[in-house]
Amino acid sequence: MIGLVLAAGAGRRLRPYTDTLPKTLVPVDGPTTILDIGLGNLAAAGLTDVVVVVGYAADAVRSRQADLEDRHGVKLTLVPNDRAEEWNNAYSLWLARDHFAAGALLVNGDTVHPASVEQTLLARRGPGVLLAVDTVKKLADEEMKVVFDGAGRLTRITKLMDPADAHGEYIGATLIEASAAAGLADALEATWRRDPGRYYEDGYQEYAERGGEVRGAPIGDVPWVEVDNHDDLAKAREIACRY
Predict the structure, then answer these.
(1) Nearest Cα to Cα of residue 24 among 83, 68, 66, 72
(2) CA 226/CA 195 separation, integer angstroms
(3) How far apart are alpha carbons 136 and 120 in whole angstroms?
(4) What is the DSSP string of 116-161?
(5) Residue 121's CB: how many other CB atoms inside 10 A?
(6) For every residue of 15-70, which 3-state class applies, written as one string?
(7) How far apart are CA 229 and CA 212, in angstroms?
(8) φ and ψ at residue 114, rounded to 5 degrees
(9) Which pLDDT score, from 0 to 100, does residue 30 have?
(10) Is residue 220 left, alpha or beta, with left meaning phi > 0 and alpha meaning psi from -120 to 50?
């Protein structure tokens, strides 16, 4: 099993930081970046072979690759996404399909969370795809909301849902078992070919509708944030210094 980071996004709402840097390299605790947090968490979980999908300002990641490897004790493989500024991240995850074929623990390159999230996923692993879910946070319109059936299998994952109907929020961390990898890759390809603007979570929906097993693992009451704008960045800087 490998670690996998999706870090191709531009993060335009974080300008001027992202005038020259991808969102994942925005600092959140002194020189520590969002990517540093993710790589540190994966290394702490024993996943030192890490694939990073890069796109916008990819050279900034390449220039820091050796330092990141030394700092976190990991081996990085960079997968380029030349459509990152045009297409959404269903395509980004699909580009890594050969790498996650043997299983992967995926984290979004714009999420700041403690290593307990990765530990929760590894402790709850099963035969398919396992999503890290916040069941504590009060939800609003922008969150990636999830619903599970009585057997615990995913029925819906979308932002376009009444928050009152959701069981929680998917926080951007997934454990993909090797047995699910080929089916998920096919579902992701169908998703981005249907609409390149789709999220990889739409690929999870497609996979579930095809009969694939997608479940959720509650992460508990832990501090985390998806960094989309300057308010999120302020919160990330508040919590990143705690771990």
Answers:
(1) 68
(2) 24
(3) 15
(4) HHHHHHHHT--SSEEEEEESSSPP-SSS-EEEE-TTSBEEEEESSS
(5) 21
(6) CCHHHCCCHHHCEEECCEEHHHHHHHHHHHCCCCEEEEEEECEHHHHHHHHHHHHH
(7) 34
(8) -75, 165
(9) 85
(10) left
Beta bridge partners of 157: 146
What is d(CA 230, CA 17) in angstroms, rounded to the nearest whole number? 10
Q: Looking up tokens 């700092």, which residue turns up? A: 71
**C-alpha 96: how far from its chain's center?**
13
0.90 exceeded by the pTM? yes
What percent helix, strand, coil does the chain show, rounded to 5? 40, 25, 35
Give CA–CA dist 234/117, Å, rounded: 21
pLDDT digits (tens, 9 = 90+) for 140-199: 878 899 999 999 999 999 998 888 889 999 999 999 999 999 999 999 999 999 999 999
Burial of 60 from C-beta contacts in 10 A (0-12 / 13-18 / 19+): middle
